[in-house]
Design a protein that fits this description.
The complex is a heterodimer of chains A (about 425) and B (about 475). Chain A is of the alpha/beta class. Chain A folds into 4 domains: about 90 residues, Alpha-helical ferredoxin (Fumarate Reductase Iron-sulfur Protein, Chain B, domain 2, Orthogonal Bundle); about 55 residues, no CATH class; about 130 residues, Glutathione S-transferase Yfyf (Class Pi), Chain A, domain 2 (Up-down Bundle); about 120 residues, 3-Layer(aba) Sandwich (Rossmann fold), CATH 3.40.50. Helices cover about 50% and strands about 10% of the residues of chain A. A 5-stranded mixed β-sheet of chain A has the order 1-3-2-4-5. In chain A, strands 7-6-8-9 form a 4-stranded parallel β-sheet, with helices on both faces. Chain B has about 475 residues and is an alpha+beta fold. A 7-stranded antiparallel β-sheet of chain B has the order 15-12-14-13-17-18-16, with helices on both faces. Classes of the chains: A alpha/beta (about 425), B alpha+beta (about 475). Chains A and B meet through helix 3 and helix 4 of A and helix 2 of B. Chain A: Its cofactor is [4Fe-4S] cluster.
C-alpha cells in the first residue's frame, strides 16, 4: 500500500526550508507539519512505515496543491508527484467516503443550506465529476458558510453556438492555426470568456478550431487521487486533438492548462501513449502566451487601477508569469499595480474552498489584506476557480461595489473593442 | 520524559493550546533541520512572549527536561535538533515586533522575525541591516543570532555579532536579563551580548534583540572575473583588497561548479576555466564606477582572462544567476548535499583549493567548491546519496580531512554555520584541550543542569567522530 508513495522523490529534498515562505498553509497555520518540507518528510516517514497514513492525513489533505513550493525549491523536488502519490494511496485505502468522514470529524453544523449545496453541486455536476458530486451529496449537511458560494456562483450562460462551429477563420491574414480547449466548468459558467477568447484569437489572426470530441482535462480527479479516470480523460483528449494539424492547443483556464501540460508525465510509462502525450503537451499554451506573441491592436483605453492575481497552476506548473502582465501593461492608459505576495495561492485550489472552508478563508483573508494595500479598481484573474474566490474575497471585505473581478480575457477583449 | 503533570503546568502558562504540539505528525516535523540526523522531541511549544519562555524554562528546570530553541530550522549544523528529546521551542510565530528607530538607527525585533524583513524595513528609512545569509528570506533573526550567521556581505560589513547592541535573554534558570543596550559604545562589565551571540542556544534563549543599522549605500555594481588558473584568482582577491577598494561581495566558483551550472542550464559560462569570481561594489554611483574600472585593471594585471561588467540591474542579476544555479545544478546528480563552511585565511585560498581537489580524488567523492572568497569562507559541498552507505562513509572521511586541512592552514571549522552536532568531534583539534575546557566551564557555570540545547558544540566523549550515516 505505502509502496505507491513517491518515496524516491522525497530524497530530493535537502530540507533547506526555502519553500516555507512560499507556502500559504505554512503561513496561515504556522506549523512545520503544514509546510512543504514537513509534508515531504511525512510522506517519507509513511513510506518507511514510521508513521501511518491516517496520522499524516490531516497535514496532506490541507495542502492546497498550489505547487508554489516547486517554484521556490532550489533542488527541483517534484512536490506535485509526492502529493499525488499520497492522494492515490489514500483514495485506495478509503473505506468510507471522504466527505462523510469529514462531516463526522468536523462536527455537524447546525444549519442545512440546501441552496449552497445545490450551487456547489451544480458546478461539479456540470463538470461531469460524478465522484466529487457524490461526495458533496454525502456531506448532507454543509457548513453554513457555504451560502457564500451560492451568492457568487455565476449564472449559467450558454456558449455561443456559432463559436463552437468546427473551424473559425482569422480576421485578416492567418498567423497561426489553433485548437481551442474549452474546459467543462468554463464552458458552463464562464462560456462568455471562452467566446471572447476565441474572438480575440481570431482578431489576432488565428484560425480557431473547436473540437467536439474534447472532454474534461481531469485535473480535479487527479487532485483527488483518481489517476485511473485522469488517464482515461487524457487519452480521450489526446486522441481528439490529433484530428487536425494545429500549431497550438490553447486554453484560458490556468488550472486545466496545468493538467494538460502534464499529460506526458501522467502517461510516461504507457508505451502506446507516451509519445503522443508529449506531442500534445508541447503544443499546449495558455491563451496569454499566444496573444502576447501576436501584437494585439487595442482600440480603447482602460483608465483603471488594475492588479493581477495569477493562477498558481499557471505560474508554478505552466511557468507562465510575465505574459499576462505584459499584456495588461500594453493596454493604453492602464494603471497596473503589482499585488504584494501575488504568487501566494488565493485558497480556491480546486475543491479546497469547499472541503476546507475555514482554512481556505484564512488564506483568502491574507490575500485580501494585500489587495487592500493596492486599492485596485479591478482584480484580473486567469482561472475560473481563482475568479470565484476573488469574488468571494471582495464580497467578504464589503468591496463588491468598488472592485470588479475580471478574467484577463474580458479585459483584453474590452480594450480591443470585442464584445 | 514529559509527564502529564508537567504538561498541565505548561498548559496553564501558554495562552493557546494551539501552540502546544503533541501530535505525532507535528513531533516528527520538528525532528530535523537543514543538516543531518533526526531526533524526535517529546513536545513542541510555540511561545509568543518572554513571560511564556521564562515559565517554560522554569518548568523544564523543575523536571530537568532539555530545551532546544528553534527558528525556522534552516540550520546547516544541527543547531535546533532535539538530540536528547525534550522540548523544542519553535519561535517562528513570534514575529510581531519589528520596530525601526530612525534617530538611534536601531531595529528592535522579536526572535521570530525573518532576517530579510529587517533589512526591508530598514530600507524604508534609507538604512541597512547588512548580514545576509543566503537563507535570509527564510531564517529567523533568533536563529541568526544564536548561530552568529554570516553571508556574502560579511567581507565588507562583518557578521551578525557586529550588529547586535543589546539582547533580552531568558537564562537557563528562567530568569529574564538584559545585556548591552542601544548605544554603540558600552563597556559596562563583561560583554555578555557578544557571548550569547553565536552560543548556539546553549547559554540562554534570546527573546529580543536591539540591532544596529547603518546608512544604506546608494548603488551597487556587479562584475564577473574569469580565471584560467585558480592561483591567479587568489592573487586577484588580495590585489583588489590592497588597492584601496573594499567590495561588498567577492564570491568564487570552481571549475566543477561552473561545469555543473552549464550542464544544468547553459548561461554562457566558459567551462574551460579554473575559477570565476563575482564581485559586487557598493557606494556612491560615481565612486563605484571608478572603482569598477580599477578592479578590472587589477584583475587583468594578475592574469584574469576576462572581466564582464554589468551594465544595468538586469545584467547584474544575470551574472549572479550563475551563483544561484549552483545548488540546483549540483543536486541533479545525487540528492544529498553536505554543505561545509570551513574557513581559511584569505592567502590560503589557492592552497585550500588544491587540497580540496586532492581530497576529492582520494575519497572518490563529488565535491564542488564555491563561497565567499573575499573572507576565505569557502563552501566545499559534497554531493552524495545518503542511501549509499559505502559512499557516505567515504564522505565522512573526506569531511574529517577537510576540517583538519582548514585548521592546518590556520583556519577554522566553521565560518558561519556553527558547530551544532556535526562538528563537535573536531572542537579539541581547533581549540586544544585547555581551550575547550574553558568553554565548557562557561557552559557549566551558566547551565549547570545542562538543559539548554544539550548535545551541541561540545563532544559527548573524547573519541566521538563524525557520523552521517547509521552503521
Amino acid at each position: 500500500m505505502t509502496s505507491k508513495l513517491a518515496y524516491k522523490e522525497t530524497f530530493d529534498c535537502v530540507q533547506c526550508g526555502y519553500c516555507l515562505p512560499a507556502c500559504p498553509t505554512y503561513s496561515t497555520m504556522g506549523k512545520e507539519s503544514h509546510s512543504p518540507r514537513g509534508r515531504i518528510n511525512l510522506v517519507q516517514m509513511a513510506s518507511e512505515g514510521k508513521i501511518s497514513i491516517n496520522e499524516i492525513e490531516e497535514s496532506m489533505d490541507l495542502c492546497l496543491g498550489c505547487r508554489a513550493c516547486e517554484t521556490a525549491c532550489p533542488t527541483n523536488v517534484q512536490y506535485g508527484k509526492i502529493l499525488e502519490s499520497f492522494k492515490e494511496v489514500k483514495a485506495e485505502q478509503e473505506t468510507s467516503p471522504l466527505a462523510s468522514r469529514l462531516a463526522m470529524q468536523k462536527g455537524l453544523p447546525n444549519k442545512t443550506i440546501l441552496g449552497a449545496m445545490t450551487a456547489s453541486l451544480r458546478i461539479y455536476q456540470s463538470m461531469g465529476v460524478d465522484k466529487l458530486a457524490r461526495k458533496m451529496k454525502l456531506l448532507k449537511v454543509l457548513p453554513e458558510q457555504l451560502q457564500a458560494f451560492e451568492e457568487i456562483t455565476p449564472k449559467i450562460e450558454k456558449p455561443d453556438k456559432k463559436l463552437r462551429a468546427s473551424v473559425l477563420s482569422p480576421n485578416g491574414e492567418k498567423k497561426a492555426s489553433i485548437a481551442f480547449f474549452t474546459g467543462c466548468i468554463m464552458d458552463v459558467f464562464f462560456a462568455k470568456i471562452n467566446d471572447l477568447s476565441i474572438k480575440l484569437l481570431q482578431y489576432a489572426g488565428c484560425e480557431v478550431t473547436v473540437i467536439k470530441e474534447q472532454t474534461c482535462c481531469g485535473a480535479l480527479q487527479n487532485h483527488d487521487g483518481d489517476t485511473e479516470t485522469t488517464r482515461k480523460l487524457a487519452k480521450k483528449n489526446i486522441a481528439a486533438f490529433e484530428k487536425g494539424n494545429f500549431d497550438y492547443i490553447v486554453n484560458s483556464i490556468g488550472g486545466c492548462g496545468a493538467m494538460l501540460v502534464e499529460y506526458d508525465v501522467l502517461l510516461k510509462n504507457d508505451s502506446e501513449w507516451s509519445e503522443r502525450a508529449k506531442r500534445f503537451t508541447d503544443k499546449n499554451k495558455d491563451v496569454s502566451v499566444i496573444l502576447s506573441k501576436l501584437n494585439l491592436q487595442f482600440k480603447k483605453e482602460l483608465n483603471r487601477r488594475v492588479t493581477y492575481q495569477p493562477s498558481c497552476h499557471l505560474t508554478n506548473v505552466q511557468k507562465v508569469t510575465t505574459d499576462p502582465i505584459h499584456l495588461l501593461q500594453s493596454i493604453p492608459k492602464i494603471n497596473y499595480v503589482p499585488l504584494p505576495a501575488g504568487d501566494m495561492c488565493c485558497g480556491s485550489a480546486g475543491t479546497y474552498n469547499i472541503f476546507h472552508y475555514d482554512e481556505s478563508m484564512e488564506i483568502l483573508d491574507e490575500k485580501m489584506e494585500n489587495v487592500k494595500k493596492v486599492v485596485p479598481e479591478m482584480i484580473v484573474t486567469s482561472n475560473p476557480g481563482c475568479h470565484l474566490q476573488m469574488c468571494l474575497g471582495v464580497k467578504r471585505e464589503g468591496l463588491a461595489s468598488k472592485v470588479r473581478v475580471a478574467h484577463i480575457i474580458e479585459v483584453l477583449a474590452e480594450a480591443c473593442g470585442i464584445e | 520524559m514529559v509527564t502529564e503533570e508537567m504538561l498541565n503546568q505548561i498548559k496553564s502558562m501558554i495562552k493557546s493550546e494551539k501552540r502546544i504540539l503533541t501530535e505525532k505528525a507535528d513531533l516528527v516535523s520538528y525532528a530535523y533541520d537543514g543538516s543531518f540526523g533526526s531526533y524526535l522531541p517529546d513536545l513542541v511549544l510555540q511561545p509568543l512572549s518572554t513571560e511564556e519562555v521564562s515559565g517554560i524554562v522554569k518548568t523544564a528546570n523543575r523536571w530537568k527536561v532539555p530545551i532546544y530553541p528553534r527558528g525556522r530550522g534552516t540550520s546547516l549544523s544541527g543547531g535546533p535538533l532535539p538530540v536528547y528529546g525534550g522540548i523544542v521551542l519553535d519561535f517562528s510565530l513570534w514575529n510581531q515586533k519589528l520596530t525601526i528607530d530612525r534617530d538611534d538607527t536601531v531595529a528592535i525585533v522579536s526572535p521570530g522575525v525573518i532576517t530579510a524583513e529587517i533589512d526591508r524595513a530598514a530600507r524604508e528609512f534609507g538604512l541597512m541591516y547588512p548580514p545576509d545569509p543566503s537563507s535570509a528570506h527564510v531564517s529567523t533573526i533568533g536563529g541568526n543570532l544564536a548561530e552568529n550567521a554570516g553571508g556574502p556581505r560579511g567581507l565588507k560589513y562583518g557578521v551578525t555579532k557586529d550588529y547586535v547592541l543589546g539582547l533580552e535573554i531568558v537564562t537557563p534558570q528562567g530568569d529574564i536579563i538584559r545585556t548591552g543596550g542601544r548605544t554603540i559604545k558600552n563597556v559596562t562589565g563583561y560583554d555578555l551580548t557578544k557571548l550569547i551571540v553565536g552560543s548556539e542556544g546553549t547559554l540562554g534563549i534570546i527573546t529580543e534583540a536591539i540591532l544596529q543599522l547603518i546608512p544604506r549605500p546608494q548603488a551597487t555594481q556587479t562584475m564577473m572575473v574569469i580565471f584560467d588558473d585558480i592561483v591567479d584568482a587568489g592573487r586577484a582577491i588580495s590585489s583588489v583588497l590592497t588597492s584601496g577598494i573594499l567590495p561588498s561581495k567577492m564570491e568564487i566558483m570552481d571549475q566543477f561548479s561552473i561545469e555543473a551550472v552549464e550542464d544544468y542550464e547553459p548561461i554562457g559560462l566558459p567551462t574551460d576555466v579554473d575559477a570565476i569570481i563575482l564581485i559586487e561594489l557598493d557606494g556612491h554611483p560615481l565612486a563605484i564606477q571608478d572603482e569598477c574600472h580599477q578592479v578590472e585593471k587589477v584583475c587583468l594585471d594578475v592574469g584574469a582572462r576576462e572581466v564582464k561588467i554589468a551594465t544595468d540591474s538586469e545584467s547584474a542579476a544575470k551574472l549572479w544567476k550563475a551563483r544561484k544555479l549552483v545548488s540546483p545544478a549540483i543536486v541533479r546528480k545525487k540528492p544529498t548535499k553536505i554543505s561545509e563552511d570551513a574557513t581559511i585565511p584569505r592567502s590560503k585560498i589557492p592552497e585550500m583549493f588544491k587540497r580540496l581537489k586532492e581530497i576529492k580524488t582520494k575519497y572518490d567523492i563529488d565535491l564542488v567548491v564555491f563561497g565567499h572568497a573575499g573572507d576565505g569562507n569557502l563552501h566545499p559541498n559534497i554531493i552524495a546519496d545518503k542511501r549509499d552507505k559505502a559512499e557516505m562513509k567515504r564522505v565522512e572521511q573526506a569531511v574529517t580531512e577537510i576540517f583538519s586541512t582548514a585548521i592546518e592552514l590556520g583556519g577554522t571549522l566553521s565560518g558561519e554555520h556553527g558547530i551544532g552536532t556535526m562538528k563537535t568531534p573536531f572542537m579539541e583539534m581547533e581549540l586544544g584541550g585547555a581551550g575547550l575546557e574553558m568553554m565548557k566551564r562557561m557552559k557549566t557555570a551558566w547551565d549547570p543542569l545542562n538543559i539548554m540545547n544539550p548535545g551541541k558544540i561540545f563532544p559527548d566523549s573524547k573519541d566521538q567522530r563524525l557520523v552521517l550515516v547509521d552503521d
